[in-house]
Amino acid sequence: MGFWPFFGRTPKVAVLRLSGVISASDRSFSGGLSVASLNISIQRAFSMRGVKAVALLINSPGGSPVQSAMICRRIRTLALEKELPVFAFIEDVAASGGYWLACAADEIYADANSIVGSIGVISSGFGFQDAIQRLGVERRVYSQGKHKAILDPFKAEDPEGVEMLMDIQKEIYEGFKLHVRERRGKRLAEESEQLFGGDVWTGKRALELGLIDGLGDVYSITRERFGEEVKIRFVDVPKKWFRRRLGLEAGFEGNGSFQDNFVEKLWHQLETRSLWSKYGL
């Protein structure tokens, strides 16, 4: 019976994989990251019996700043509640919102060749006003409110609308910089325009800038911290059908046609492909 007091003493680290574009809803064919789709997994990671730390495996080119902040806030809330350290391990890329997620960790690690950074805000779109004229299409829009149809892609670009968008971007950008400063603190090597200018760096350079704490992966670092006997326990993300059963994610909505939903998903897939391709992935 002397066996039992020693049972379960092997340290465990819960590992949560955060891979994909950060988006409010899973509109792509390949999946994405949102607080709704990750909430159950985050809770499981921090509630795992005997866990000594939570590790985040991050591979994301960014996406929604709102979802980035909400996911990060959920992780920090549970980390403080459970009094558990959080480690982030950047794989191929943690850019923009992906780096926002990494800052949820107490310590950040990456491979020497990982792509890290892109601290900034970007919005993009297309102008179709000339295209519909060539097609002989007359578009009719009826709205109330001076700015309700601002930045309409079927109208010529409006300087006032652009200025409004830039003001919104500036607020989000300042919030992003504040988040990085609060989470990284004095570990940041320098306060410069370059650091917060949207640049990206390799893991090696990111270490010099103080954006990460070291080079390594989840296996090498956890063994170094918790010993050779440490157990790595991956936390599964619930499948789509399960999340839908729980009401956490919508499928094809009844209010729209299959064609409309398909086009929306295809467009989102192109946006997703564009984000990844920026980093050669």
From TrEMBL:
Keyword set, alphabetical order: Hydrolase, Protease, Serine protease
Keyword Protease: yes
GO BP, sorted A to Z: proteolysis
Molecular function GO labels: serine-type peptidase activity
Pfam family, one: Peptidase_S49
Signal peptide annotation: none
Domain Peptidase S49: 80-220
Entry-linked CDD domains: S49_Sppa_N_C
Gene3D superfamilies: 2-enoyl-CoA Hydratase, Chain A, domain 1, 6.20.330.10
PANTHER family: PEPTIDASE S49, PROTEINASE
Family: Belongs to the peptidase S49 family.
Name of the molecule in the record: Peptidase S49 domain-containing protein
Taxonomy of the source species: unclassified sequences, metagenomes, ecological metagenomes
